[in-house]
């Protein structure tokens, strides 16, 4: 599933380059091309990430991972808006001297699961993520740090390691999310 998302992002990047070049005549054409490309990449990337998150939720439910069923679009708009709000909050936090941005990244890291697993609206998902991470304190902070280090370990191995570490980390977060919210986790 991660490989599908990786290839999908490569294809979207290629299409983005074609679009940027098509509108490259002049400053405003360039800006329009870049804006259109970034929007395209954001939507395609969000769609592919939904597939990855839904795969981990299927595994937690004990269901088989079926790519056609993983790429459901019913929560695409909420998912994209939630990610955009989350990114904007983190951006503002980083502008306020880096540490607030790191805090926002931690507080909101469960947001995608609230949108996709519980069908929450973007703002409600952010609030729920903030409440869950705040309520669970140091154990969850240490868990988030270990998860981050797993991502880093995958990146260190020429990025190819991410094909292994991303699914492992996302399954860990899905399992933890389900335990924290009283959701189902099959063995």
Per DSSP E runs of 2 or more residues, the count of β-strands stands at 0
C-alpha end-to-end distance: 21 Å
What is the overall shape? globular
Rg, Cα atoms, Å: 18 Å
Q: How large a portion of the residues is in β-strands, by DSSP E?
A: under 5%
Give helix % range.
Answer: over 70%
Count every helix, treating DSSP H or I runs of 4 or more residues as helices: 8
Mean pLDDT: 90
**Major sheet size, sense and barrel closure:** none
Tally of separate domains: 1
Unreliable stretches (pLDDT < 50, length at least 5) are none
Element pattern in H and E = HHHHHHHH
Structural class: mainly alpha
Sum up the structure in keywords.
single chain; 187 residues; mainly alpha; 81% helix; globular
Write the layout of secondary structure elements.
Elements lengths: L1 H21 L4 H35 L5 H4 L5 H20 L3 H9 L3 H8 L3 H35 L5 H20 L6
Helix pairs in contact: 1-2, 2-4, 2-6, 2-8, 4-5, 4-6, 4-7, 6-7, 7-8
Provide a descriptive summary of the structure in words.
With 187 residues, the protein is mainly alpha-helical. The protein has one domain (2-181). Helix content is 81%, strand content 0%. The protein is built from eight helices and no strands. The protein has helices at 2-22, 27-61, 67-70, 76-95, 99-107, 111-118, 122-156, 162-181. The longest helix has 35 residues, at 27-61. The mean pLDDT is 90.
